[in-house]
Amino acid sequence: MTTKGTEVTVRAFTLEDLKRILVEVAGADEDMGPDAEILDLGFEQLGYESLALLETGGRIERDYAITLADDALHAEVTPRELIDAVNNLLSAPAV
Amino acid sequence: MTASAVVTGLGVAAPNGLGTQDFWAATRAGKSGIGRITRFDPARYPSQLAGEIPGFAAEELLPGRLLPQTDRMTRLALVAADWALADAGVRPADLPAFDMGVVTASASGGFEFGQGELQKLWSKGSQYVSAYQSFAWFYAVNSGQISIRNGMKGPSGVIVSDQAGGLDAVAQARRQIRKGTPLIVTGAVDASICPWGWVAQMAGGRLSTRSEPARAYLPFDDEASGHVPGEGGAILILEEASAARRRGAKIYGEIAGYGTTFDPRPGSGRPPGLRRAIELALRDARLEPSDVDVVFADAAALPDHDRVEAEAIGAVFGPRGVPVTAPKSMTGRLYSGGAPLDLSAALLAIEEGLIPPTVNVAPSPGYGLDLVVAQPRPARLRTAMVLARGHGGFNSAMAVRAL
Prior knowledge:
The complex is a heterodimer of chains A (95) and B (403).
Chain A: E1 2-3, E2 6-7, H1 15-26, H2 35-38, H3 50-64, H4 79-91
Antiparallel strand pairs in A: 1-2
Chain B: E1 5-14, E2 17-18, H1 20-28, E3 34-36, E4 49-51, H2 58-61, H3 72-88, E5 100-105, H4 111-123, H5 133-136, H6 141-150, E6 156-159, H7 165-178, E7 183-190, H8 195-203, H9 213-216, E8 232-240, H10 241-246, E9 253-262, H11 274-284, E10 294-296, H12 303-317, E11 323-325, H13 338-352, E12 354-355, E13 370-371, E14 377-378, E15 383-390, E16 394-401
Parallel strand pairs in B: 5-6, 5-7, 10-11, 10-15, 11-13
Antiparallel strand pairs in B: 1-2, 1-8, 1-9, 3-4, 7-8, 9-16, 12-14, 15-16
Helix pairs in contact in B: 1-13, 3-6, 11-12
């Protein structure tokens, strides 16, 4: 988001947001584990298969009015990488 | 010598009993599960009765991860499979993955899940449709989900032949056991009591429109006027007999024989195929008609269908030549789930020596059937024949026998 030439980064998408969406679209089992541990594990390691990721990506695109790149979400991507990708899109200047 | 396939575990989800014990306690006592629909408001539909399963709490019985991706029929099937495996004393994690397969039947797939996604598509747009719709509606999904949950990588599949499919799947499971897979999870569960599933069933024109539960589904009665649909079914664990004996498993009985035919084209003048299906099953089991102690009827409750079935039974077994029953008069027709539930009831009947009754029916004398009505009938039972017909001409018959 650009205001009078000064770039303001809005960290609009957090791990809490991602966890909420994952639970909504793919269901919850036990506790996922401490945030520090899950941030850097691949989604496959966290137990989310391809359709769960497709569903998660679709929900983020819908809720945040963005379009994720094709490679933004797959089995090896980590929550940290996805959160960064979403925030980059949210802070990008509108075209 | 071909391998013998035996049933070592039962998992039942029926409108008159959730779990094998509840189901049998209700069935032997003639307790019906048919009532006015509660899962949606049926007031505007001509048919308003169904056999619904009360009190099924999937969220207490299955992992949360499975809930967003499963229709009700799949949740019931997964839980019934868990119960059947536990009943058989089988822990899938202890067995080689390729020694276990899954063959179920399905008549309609996951209608309720599909209805929800279609509603999202029409009211909100395609980006709101769940990715899980890609498989959650699908006929094969119960086989797939059971195999994934239990790590079963052996031969698997699905049979789609309406009500007959429930026997056809067990027959396919027996083929896979004969070809060398030691254990197959089989049977079927259907559940489509939702508005979309309901109008699809109404379109077939075979549903009863009566409003009194005790007068709505009356097979072999002069007042027969169609059937009441139900939800549920049964999952069976089928094993190669010597392997089951080696591990000391309880054996309910053997899948002794199977026959299946397809009706000739209407107007061809050739006879219906049910009689020949029964004869094929007898020959396959090396049984004489007099060896069969009870027949579990398909019980369509349409006069022409009832006549065809009564004539087939009479032609093979003689007039009033074998006790006949239709415990599905207590559950409604469960489509692919109906025959596995009848197989379960037949095995439990053999175990107890008691034929469960056909409820509410006053048999039409014209059919010449020895229909067991009102009260259960004690009897020495060793062999039972289960019949199942699917819309469009499918006829299947299966004999089960105590060992």
